Every structure is written in C-alpha cells, then in structure tokens.
C-alpha cells in the first residue's frame, strides 16, 4: 500500500489531468456554442417560404423579406437597431432574449482572460452562471417566437391558415436549429459543474498534502 503522502500526490495528479481535459472540452464547446449562437441570432431564415406558400420570402428574428406575388423581387425590412419595425411583439421579445443569450455566451468567452487574475474555480462559477442564464434566454426566445406567427406579414407569406404556433405552408428550419441548440448548452453546464468539482477537490488535496495527512473528501 502506498504511503498517505504518495497516495495523495497520485490522486492529485489524476485529478489535475482529468480536470484539464474536461476544462479543455468545456472551453472548445463554449466557443463553438458562441459561434452557433451568433449565427442563429443573425440568421434571417428562421422561417421561410415553401412550395405551397402564396408568396416568396423569409423571416428572421428582426429582419424579413416578403415578395409581392408577381415578380421575384422581395421587399426587405427590419433590423435590430430599428426595433419598432419588427412586425410582432413576440418577435421583439424573442430578438431581445436571443440577443441576450448571444451576449452572455460572448461575455463568457471573454471571461477566459480572468483565468490569469482569479482562481480557476471562481472563473468556472462565473461562466457557469452566464451559461445557465444564456440557456434560459435561448429557451424562452424559442418558445416566444412562434407566438408572432399570426402577424399580418407572416400570414401574407405563409397563407391565411397560419396562426400562433402553426406555421401553415412555411418551413421553420432555423427555428428548429435554435431549439436544438439548447441541448449543447446543457452539456456545457454539465462540464462546467464537473470541472468546478475537480477544482474544489484539487484544493482539498493540496491542503492535505501541505498538512501531511490523508486526502479528505
């Protein structure tokens, strides 16, 4: 049997290695999640026309283009800076929430620089709360967005059968991708939690080694 000091050092080595691997995976997934989040926010094809739609066009969170039914030209309106031009209150709320989700993830990535200033566990906790808030905003935005499908502009493109949470003849590819994006956020929170536990346990091991005792759980 290994002496207590050697056993503690072995435990510490294993936990440091495991925590670094999980931390690296967490950082990579956070950056990828941020890229996808920015793409989802700026993507104008949350809902789009289909084979049976009366007119061509597409809708994003805040930008949309709808044809006139005669030519292939489309009239485009809306931008995030022109909030009043967004055709639905639900679209406005979804734009704000998805935008907040994006900003939280981008800020979380920026917080990586805090590893040089603060303890590792503190940075993971800060980023964990940001990712949790980002996930909540993302889910709420995706839930609220279909409430605006009954607006006149959407009905003009998708048909009169379009209603709240019923898109009629239009497609909803990007909206579905945004919903699926909530799952990677849960994975990030899972990894963040485990890295935080590893960091806490590593500090306990360090204290045990300094005191010359056994590792305490």
Automatic annotation (TrEMBL):
InterPro entries: LHFPL. Its main location: membrane. GO terms for cellular component: plasma membrane. Keywords: Membrane, Transmembrane, Transmembrane helix. GO terms for biological process: sensory perception of sound. It comes from Perca fluviatilis. The lineage of its organism: Eukaryota, Metazoa, Chordata, Craniata, Vertebrata. The keyword Transferase does not apply. The chain crosses the membrane at residues 21-41, 96-119. Pfam families: L_HMGIC_fpl. This is LHFPL tetraspan subfamily member 3. It is found in: Membrane. Coiled coil: none annotated. The keyword Transmembrane applies. It is a multi-pass membrane protein.
């Amino acid at each position: 049997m290994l002496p207590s000091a050697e056993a503690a050092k072995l435990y510490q080595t294993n936990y440091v290695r495991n925590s670094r691997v999980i931390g690296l995976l967490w950082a990579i997934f956070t950056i990828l999640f941020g890229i996808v989040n920015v793409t989802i926010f700026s993507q104008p094809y949350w809902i789009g026309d289909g084979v049976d739609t009366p007119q061509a066009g597409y809708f994003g969170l805040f930008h949309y283009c709808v044809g006139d039914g005669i030519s292939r030209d489309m009239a485009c309106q809306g931008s995030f800076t022109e909030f009043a031009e967004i055709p639905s209150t639900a679209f406005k709320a979804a734009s704000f929430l998805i935008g907040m989700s994006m900003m939280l993830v981008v800020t979380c990535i920026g917080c990586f620089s805090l590893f040089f200033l603060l303890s590792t566990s503190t940075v993971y906790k800060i980023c964990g709360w940001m990712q949790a808030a980002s996930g909540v905003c993302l889910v709420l935005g995706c839930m609220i967005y279909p409430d605006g499908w009954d607006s006149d502009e959407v009905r003009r493109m998708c048909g009169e059968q379009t209603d709240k949470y019923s898109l009629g003849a239009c497609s909803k590819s990007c909206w579905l991708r945004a919903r699926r994006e909530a799952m990677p956020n849960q994975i990030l929170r899972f990894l963040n939690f485990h890295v935080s536990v590893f960091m806490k346990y590593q500090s306990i091991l360090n204290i045990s080694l300094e005191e010359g005792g056994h590792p305490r759980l």
